[in-house]
TrEMBL record:
Biological classification of the source: Bacteria, Bacillati, Bacillota, Bacilli, Lactobacillales
UniProt DNA-binding residue ranges: 128-232
Species name: Apilactobacillus ozensis DSM 23829 = JCM 17196
Gene Ontology terms for molecular function: phosphorelay response regulator activity; transcription cis-regulatory region binding
SUPFAM superfamilies in the cross-refs: C-terminal effector domain of the bipartite response regulators (SSF46894)
Protein name stated in the entry: OmpR/PhoB-type domain-containing protein
Keyword Isomerase: no
């Protein structure tokens, strides 16, 4: 969460290089709606959004009560008192001047790994069986995706691929990122599989989308030389 666009882009780019997908909001009061729709593994929060570090930590402390995931915060200037307060309120880590997007992602991955090892039975928050993303409704219990009240009738693998793309809506994803998110455990070591299998399933999903959509508010676009982008207005 940051209202500094250049930083948001740098952090997102650093995350993409490490298969960490970033969804950004610019205001704290907008974060709840994002959390209700997306699965997430950590928070990265810009303390400069608040007028003081104390106010920021109070809000983050309340948020942390509900979400059992690591919190990484950053700000150009942090006093020793600020740093002590961050740790006293069980915020996992901080980054300060100079703000380095790569360092933020490295620390985030480190803490996500720690949580995955030691908090296996403590989910970030009770997951909803049904989630809404603009015109899509995803039923995680029945493995169905409804678009404008119409069942897309997806195969199991198409469901996982579509759900993965929906969670990363309006973000450019490489074929490798998509493959790692959906098929990695199925790979038999053949190097040609990631590109070929992703392209085939994307083609099938495009057909399914074309069958149910009534306008151009959603589409899977090819980003030449890189991968794909799910536009979800």
């Amino acid at each position: 969460m940051t209202n500094q666009l250049h930083l948001a882009l740098k952090i997102s780019s650093a995350g993409n290089k490490n298969n960490v997908f970033i969804n950004n909001v610019s205001q704290f009061d907008k974060i709840t709606s994002l959390l209700d729709s997306y699965d997430f593994s950590a928070f990265i929060i810009d303390l400069s959004i608040w007028n003081s570090v104390d106010l920021a930590i109070k809000d983050i402390y309340l948020l942390k009560k509900d979400y059992n995931v690591p919190f990484i915060v950053f700000k150009n200037e942090l006093t020793n008192e600020d740093k002590s307060s961050i740790y006293e309120n069980n915020i996992e880590d901080y980054v300060y001047k100079p703000i380095d997007a790569e360092e933020i992602i490295i620390k985030t991955i480190h803490w996500i790994d720690n949580y995955s090892r030691f908090s296996i039975n403590s989910p970030s928050k009770k997951k909803k069986d049904v989630k809404t993303f603009n015109n899509f409704t995803v039923n995680l219990k029945n493995f169905k995706i409804i678009y404008n009240d119409v069942d897309m009738e997806l195969t199991p693998k198409e469901f996982h691929l579509m759900y993965f793309l929906i969670q990363q809506s309006n973000q450019v994803l490489s074929r490798e990122q998509i493959f790692n998110g959906v098929w990695k455990s199925d790979n038999d070591g053949n190097s040609y599989i990631p590109s070929r299998i992703v392209d085939i399933h994307i083609s099938h999903l495009r057909d399914k989308i074309n069958e149910v959509r009534t306008n151009n508010d959603v589409s899977i676009e090819t980003v030449r030389g890189f991968g794909y982008l799910l536009k979800n207005k």
